[in-house]
Amino acid sequence: MKETVIDPIKPADPVVDAIADRLLGRGERLVVAESLTGGALAGRLTAVAGASRWFLGGFVTYADSAKRDWLGLSSEILEREGAVSPEAVRAMLSGLRRRTEAEWMVATSGYAGPAGDPPGRVYVGWDRRRPTPGWPLIRRFDFQGDRAAVRDQTIQRALQGLLDGLSPDPGSPEALIPG
């Protein structure tokens, strides 16, 4: 009888598996900034042994003060546009670029519900260190469901968007990231 050996470096999550393979193949690393997902995106990425080879870490910036202090968001953006806005997510990505050496960046912000205007409104952003036309990408989603469902959908879209951006021939980034 043949014994099955499970590689402890390989994640059971096929999307994270593909992200890990692509980042490792390129010798590149990822960093995240999370608000509404509260660290769950980083948790999903690090549920895999060996993730430190391609995942640098993350900033959980749930409070506006953390967004200002840790990622450098201006009070003007937070007051004028709000923390749940494409401008705030763009600034979160910019903060990751300034504070880390990662080649890939993902940021999430939104209203998980039940409060917020409207509940389920989420912005996800992706960026790469290498200058690329059309990047960073910021997408708005209007998810349905309770807090857990909105957070889960946000994480899935963030991961799928990253995987699409890491594709061998990304082409037009707008076509890759589902809107």
Descriptive notes:
The chain is α/β, with parallel strands linked by helices. It has a single domain (14-176), classed as Maf protein (Alpha-Beta Complex). 39% of the residues lie in helices and 18% in strands. It contains seven helices and five strands, in the order H-E-H-E-H-H-H-E-E-E-H-H. It has a five-stranded mixed β-sheet, sandwiched between helices.
Topology diagram in text:
Blueprint: H1 14-26, E1 30-34, H2 40-45, E2 55-60, H3 64-71, H4 75-80, H5 86-99, E3 104-110, E4 121-128, E5 137-142, H6 147-165, H7 173-176
Parallel strand pairs: 1-2, 1-3
Antiparallel strand pairs: 3-4, 4-5
Helix pairs in contact: 1-6
